[in-house]
Here is the input.
Amino acid sequence: MPEPSSRKPRRKVRGARPEVPFDKKPVVTHHEITIHGAPLKYSAHVGMLPIRNDDGDAEAGIFYMAYTRDGVEDTTKRPIMFSFNGGPGSASVWLHLGAIGPKRVETMDDGMPPPPYKVIPNEHTWLDETDLVFIDPVGTGYSKPKNAEVGKKFWGLKGDIESVGEFIRLFLTRFQRWSSPIYIVGESYGTTRAAGLAGHLIDRGIALNGIVLVSSILNFQTARFAKGNDLPYVLFLPTYTATAWYHRRLAPELQADLQATLREVEEWAAGPYSAALAKGDALTAEERAEVVARLSRYTGLSEEYIDETELRIQIHRFCKELLRREKRTVGRLDSRFKGIDALAATESPDYDPAIAVIMPPYTSAFNDYIRGELKYETDDVYQILGTGIKSPWDWGSAGNGYPDTADALRAAFSKNPHMRVFVACGFFDLATPYFATQYTLNHMGLDPELRGNISTGYYEAGHMMYVHSPCLAQLKEDVREFVRKSLG
Here is the structure.
C-alpha cells in the first residue's frame, strides 16, 4: 500500500495560535501471523486524519488503526473494510481486539480471566479476506475535537455520520483505495451509524460492496421502554426466554431444545401477546390470566410478579428479578453472565456484569498493545466507553421520537442493488435483541427483488458474541462466506 500524502502545512501567522495537530502521519510497523497453517505478512498503520470545516480549518482529528496485507500488487481486487463500534461514545477496540484484528484479547468463555491481561494472535482474524481500518469517531479513543464546544458538532446522529463519512473519503484518497471493494462493519450503535452511512456515502459517489451489522439496532422504537410504546415488550420476550433457558429457569419440556422453544415464543409474542397488549384495559380477566400464565412460563418469573408489572417486563427489572432468589443478576450485554449487587431487594441491577467482565481486559491489553507492538507513543487517555463525549447526544429531528436509520439503508439498497448486508445476532443479547432486529428488517419496505441481499447469522452468546470462542470461529466463517459471495 502506498504511503498517504499529507497537505502542506499552513503558513503560520504571527500572533496566531498554532493549529491543533490533527493531521498525524501514521506510524508503520510490520508483522506476521499464521492462519490455517499459512503465514500472512501485514503492515499496521496507526495515525490520525483531520476533519475540516468548509473553510479548511481542522476542527477534529479521527484516530485510526489500519492493517493491510503485504505483497498485494493489485488493490482493485483487495477489499477494504472500515470498522467501528457503538455507544454512542464507544471506541473501536471491541471489534478490533475481540473479533476482527490480527490480535485479540485473551479471554475466557464464561468470565473474566485474572490479571495481567494480554493480546494473543487471532487465528480468526478477517485480515485474510480484507484489509481492515478501525475508526474511533470524535470523542472516542484518541480522537478529539478542537474543544468541547466544537465537539457538539460531531456528537449527534447527523454530525457523527458526516464526520465518519468524511474520514472514509479522506482515507480512500490518501491511501489510494478508491478502486478497492469497500465494506463497513458496525456493532450496536455502530449499526445505526453504518445504515446511515450507507445512504450518506452513496449520495457522495461511494458505493459499498457490503455491510456487516453486529448486534444491530436501526430503529430505536424497538428498544425504548416508554409509555405508549409496547413494541419492546413483545420483541424482548424471546431473549428473556433464551436467558431463562440458559440459567435453567424453564419447565423441562422448554429446556429440551432452545431453537424449538424460541420458535414457539416468537409466534406467541407476535400474535396473542401483541394483541393482548393492544387491548389495554379492554382485556378480560380470563384473557389476562392466560397472558400472565404464558409470560411466567416463558420467562421463569412468578405469575404474581408479572401481574404486578401489568404484563410488561422492562429489561432492567428482568435482569434483577430472574435470579433474585440466588441474590444474583444477569447481564444486559450478555445475559449468560451473573452479577452480585449490594442488595437483592432493589428494582434494577447495580451494574452490568457483562461490561464488568470485558472492561479491564480490553482496556489494559489495548494500552499495552498500542505502545508496545504498534509503537504509537502518546500520554493521552484512550477513551474506551463514553467518557470522551462531553455533551448530550443530539438525536436531531428524532429527539422527540425514535431514531431510525433503516430508511437510509433502504435508500442505499435502491440506489446500489449490488450491495449486500450480513446481520449477526446473539441469542443472549438483551441490549439489541435478535427478534427486534428481525422486526426492523421485516419493516424496512425493501423491494422484493432486494430482500435476498440480506443474510443473517445467529450465535449462542450475547451482544459481543465473539467473546465466546465457538461463536468467534463461527462469525469468521460466516463473514468469509458473505464477503466472497458479495464479490461474486
In short: Residues 103 and 121 are 5 Å apart (CA to CA). The longest helix spans residues 258-279.
